[in-house]
Model the fold of this input.
Amino acid sequence: MATDPICGMDVNEAASKLTSERNGRKYYFCSETCKMQFEKPENEIRQLKTALIISWPLTAIVVLLTYVLQIPYGVYVMFLFASIIQFYAGARFYEGTADAIKNRSANMDTLIAIGTSAAWLYSTLVVFIPSAFPIAGIYFDTSTIIISLILTGTFMQRLAESKASSAISALIALQPKIAHVVRLGKIVDTKIEKVKVNDVMLVKVGETIPADSIVVEGTSYINESMITGESMPILKGKGERVIGGTLNTTGPLRVKALKEWKDGALSQIVKIVEDAASSKVPIQKMADKISSYFVPLVIAIAIVSSLAWYLIGGIGLNTGILIFVSVLIIACPCALGIATPAALLVSSGVAAKEGILIKSGEALQVAGKVDAIVLDKTGTLTQGKAKVTDIITVTGYSEREVIMLAAIAETSSEHVLGKAIIERANNNKIKLEFPKKVTYTQGSGLVAVDKRGRTITVGNIDLFSKEQLRKFKVIERLESDGKTVLIVGVNKKVVGLIALADTLKEDSKRAVSSLKDAGNEVWLITGDNAKVANAIARQVGIRNVIAGAKPADKMKKIVELQSEGRVVAMIGDGVNDAPALTKADIGIAIGSGTDVAIQAGGIVLIRNRVSDAVFALELGKKTMAKIRENLFWAFGYNIILIPIAAGALIPFFTVSVYGFLPMLAALAMAFSSTAVISNSLLLTRFKAHAG
Done:
């Protein structure tokens, strides 16, 4: 069975012809109304507004004619106005019922249509055949007020839903409509859907990148904040990748499409957010099971209670009909159907705004139960690249000179440490020259001869004698801090030391502290050596460390924690950590805006910040709390009010309660759905402790 993404009702996929596709996903609907709300929500809101403009003035006249004004032929005027409301303003309920019958199911429209039709039909028969009834009660006011109240509640619910889905709408709005494709030397404006891989496109200043592409000409600063959360524009030039949907801010570019729009990062993000918002969580299974039997059960309760009070309780046919109407209206399962989807929709949108993609509702539910965290080091807690951290000099040489000498030797090197030294030299605006000769020693370093004839040695202790290094006691301290130390020499004389390390991300220490404060057991498991692993662990405050770990070792530890009854979250980079991310109860992949579709995790952190994992885990707890609150309200509402509608108050207050109970039932039904949506919208205020 599929779930209607609008009302939450179960839909038989095999029987339903009401379907719609969005971003490659097929959705099923219980009624044409729900389908229209999904495809064109603005049209339905407009139709509801029109129906309300007609129904409320006519309802007011019917109520006045019933209780205040006595005019000739007043009952016929009431019949006319009530019929307009019943079959024009209330037409959506009959359409929904017809769709339900076609789908061999029953939905909330069925209850409303049967209930209001019973009140209207009975009143109509009394007007035109009064002699057929011993008590000639007219209840046009009941049917008109119920329809007007329910339409009002639906209108308020749709407005709330449009606010809840604003995050997804904002993402969809980033999609450009037209691309300027270069064909045979001419610029041809082409619909974005028709752009193919390898098409070259012109992107003007102020326009969005049409598709995930590579720059082939020009340089410009690109604002990627809408995808990656990075606040500062990034300079992009020839050979660099740009993300579809991001903003070109300073100069024209020519880019070559790497993907079609539907396969690009933004489309994948929208799809993930929508899938999460419409997915089911395990807690919803109970609600679904009850909902599948709910409508037939309610109809049965309405029939049995009204007949029992009429035949056994002797309350009269009029009140029996009102009991029937009250039960059907008050039991409308709207709130039950949207209790989970509403919370998931809002939380998925909140997460997306923070650069966090939650792939399913189940991922959120598991995130809310996590009590053990396994962290990767490289690219997760650290930047994932080497950086110069310390420069130790010998008398007669400055830090600038030591870096310059090392950079000259490393100019042609592809080693990660050599690149870090070159980067430091460039940052210091040091002009470099290529050496005349370079000799590499595998695993030790290199020896270069510069244009002045100096022999420059850069490497580890293997390239130098113990006597030369005896006075450098600092080497041991730097290595104990997890740093790699390169020794720089000129003409066989040591002139300085350069320490390098894969440095922590700015938010790592704060994030680990927040994870521990939340009561989680935190582990650092890395393939790096013990010195480096322990040094990083000390800096962030992690006591549980496993170094030199292969992917299988990470999985083994996760299984061990799970066997202890722990709910484990694995936080890694989504590439070499893919097996562990899959094995964990919830995988949280740290990625970038261009590879969200291939991550193994149930949650993807686009901004590459481990503190966003704290946000995701806390949001999971908060979302599940909201779902439980919504379900409690929805179930509690029906459990309490159905017996009241079925006559539980008659022994205490007599049948007089049914003078107003049907209207209160409609008001309560409308309020219940609005309350669930409003409660879910409170998630928009969520702020994580590590945020």
About this structure: The radius of gyration is 34 Å. The mean pLDDT is 82. Residues 384-504 form a domain with the Calcium-transporting ATPase, cytoplasmic domain N fold (CATH 3.40.1110.10). The first strand starts at residue 2 and ends at 3.
